[in-house]
Design goal:
By secondary structure, the chain is mainly alpha-helical. It has 2 domains: 57 residues; 207 residues, MetI-like (MetI-like fold, Orthogonal Bundle). Helix content is 72%, strand content 0%. Helix 4 crosses helix 15, helix 12 runs antiparallel to helix 15 and helix 14 packs antiparallel against helix 15. The radius of gyration is 26 Å and the shape is flat. The N and C termini lie far apart (64 Å).
């Protein structure tokens, strides 16, 4: 009997611990996901509630009487200009993100690959601007925009932020992680710096470029303070600034407020869902080398 018991294979003691650790990990991830997703779900649900259900003391995760009155009220309260605000925000954010990708990649590549006098000093100056609060730049940027006669126009929300230190730093970290042998092989084939950059480096940098473009898009899309200073007429307002006027007029209409928030959030969520694969790859491949 003792021999029979001894011959039975023993279950590894560490396997149970690994399974427990995996279970705890996924449980924690599910709880965190629910914590972050719940406000978005409740916002979407509230946008389809009636005015009475939206202010009910008992939270309703499923509307008893689903309606689109909140979205219709947003359209009426904005005098039908909600689509104009949406278009202004979309054009401004897309144009600025494109400019940031272009300027950041063109500035970061020489700082990562080329050697010139004062290179470290230039990079240090660029990075040091990250520590300057953006609020400090409002007055000088306003003066520049005013002298260029860009006030109350889309260039006022596109051009001032078209070059930033974060994009340069982010793309430089990615370029430093690329194998130098690829560029050396291109040079042996007779390719110049510009051709190597366009045909070799940029295609490899696609994940980081998409990530940077998305971050720039989100920053411009959610910007409230700067458009409030430089855009005056209702036709030229962006979505955050325009929705703020609706919030002042509909402080107790939570269905209207949530409908406006959904209009602003859906494009961003859709864009993130589309570019999620590039974002994960871009973040994981950037900063490999300091």
């Amino acid at each position: 009997m003792a021999a029979t018991t001894a011959s039975l294979p023993r279950r590894p003691a560490g396997r149970s611990f690994v399974r427990l650790a995996v279970t705890v990990r996924y449980t924690a991830l599910l709880l965190l996901t629910a914590l972050f997703v719940a406000p978005l779900v409740y916002m979407a649900v509230t946008s389809f509630k009636t005015q009475a259900d939206a202010i009910a003391s008992t939270p309703q995760w499923i509307p008893h009487h689903p309606t689109t009155d909140g979205y219709l009220a947003v359209k009426d309260a904005s005098n039908g200009q909600i689509l104009r605000w949406f278009a202004n925000s979309l054009i401004g954010a897309a144009a600025q993100s494109l400019l940031i990708v272009v300027t950041a990649s063109l500035a970061a590549y020489p700082l990562a690959r080329m050697r010139f006098a004062g290179q470290r000093i230039v990079f240090a100056v660029v990075v040091s601007t990250l520590f300057v609060p953006s609020v400090i730049l409002i007055v000088p940027n306003y003066v520049i925009v005013s002298r260029l006669n860009w006030l109350d126009s889309l260039p006022a929300i596109i051009i001032p932020g078209a070059a930033g230190a974060f994009g340069v730093f982010y793309m430089r970290q990615f370029f430093l992680g690329l194998p130098v042998e690829l560029e050396e092989a291109a040079a042996l084939d007779g390719a110049g710096r510009l051709r190597t950059f366009v045909q070799i480096v940029l295609p490899l940098a696609k994940p980081s470029l998409v990530t940077l473009a998305l971050l720039a898009f989100l920053t411009n899309w959610n910007d409230f303070l700067w458009p409030l200073y430089v855009l005056f007429s209702a036709d030229h307002q962006t979505l955050p600034a325009g929705l703020a006027t609706l919030q002042n007029a509909n402080a107790v209409r939570y269905d209207v407020l949530m409908a406006g928030a959904m209009i602003a959030a859906v494009p961003v969520l859709a864009l993130y869902a589309f570019a999620q694969r590039y974002i994960v790859e871009g973040v994981s491949r950037s900063g490999l080398k300091g």
